[in-house]
Write the structure tokens for this entry.
Amino acid sequence: MHEMGIVLHIAKTLNETAEEEKITKIGSVTLQVGEVSGIITDLFVDCWNYFKVRNEILKDSELKLETLPAVTFCGDCEKTYPTVKYGRECPYCGSYETWLLTGNECIIKEIEAETL
Amino acid sequence: MKVIELKKSVTDSNDRDAALLRRELDEKGMLLINLMSAAGSGKTTFLSRTITDLKDLRIAVIEADIESVVDAERIAKLGARSIQAHTDGMCHMDAGMTREAVESIGTDETDVLFLENIGNLICPAEYDTGAQRNVMILSVPEGDDKPLKYPLMFENSNVLIITKTDTMSYFDFDMDKCIERVRRLNPFIEIFPVSAKTGEGMDEWEKWLIREVQETKNRRKR
């Protein structure tokens, strides 16, 4: 299951941060999830809730999700357009020479924490 | 409570582990190939043929498939060393798991190590394993539309092997259209259509593999 793997990777990063910053408890975790990151948010929240109660520092934490829009850039006409609506084909000039600018990220933006 | 800004990608720590493993493999002169495909695409048959054809290469295999005792036995029969990697139920191998497997099989007696990743075209594409080369397999029965459905896998691979070409006449697989779709995603990808059953096309892939093994050894000498 893909979502569980992502939860485990986040937990690893947060536990490392906790050690560096002498964190005793994390109150909230804000994640930025791209529209085309392939993460299914409902499933992700389930995995998070399943996992967090088993982790000392995360057990009372709240998960906050922010969606980042997916934007594609066209190399031929140099315009940008929303990826989800139009896909790979540029709606302005019909070119396929297009690249995703943003939208496939999954970023731990910030946490609220109690420290020693 | 205080707010701590992190701005860290989820794959951040894995990317660091992967880069470190890749550097160590280069220093040792061993080629690690991350082999990815959907389930049933003929990974093990393709590997078996490669091992049989290239007797002079010291090939080893990491099996990361859940039903892989069968696969491991098939590989072992050919005289190649293989081990089972544990993904703890996850859908992909990450750099940490790959490192454990590489260390337990050892790098001294091996020219090329294949990591047979979990059989699906989505999750393995997102996690860097630390391999120097990513090779993916698409089999003819899966269809020529797969590049449209799973673009990331095609974008992140250095080589595409199109297997089971001996079944072309039974399926509506348009080879030219498939290659065009793949090149649109990744202009630098090397493409080898093969039939591991009849051996057709295997020599081109094997030439590529021998060249890569040699180049990896050269990197060590420098």
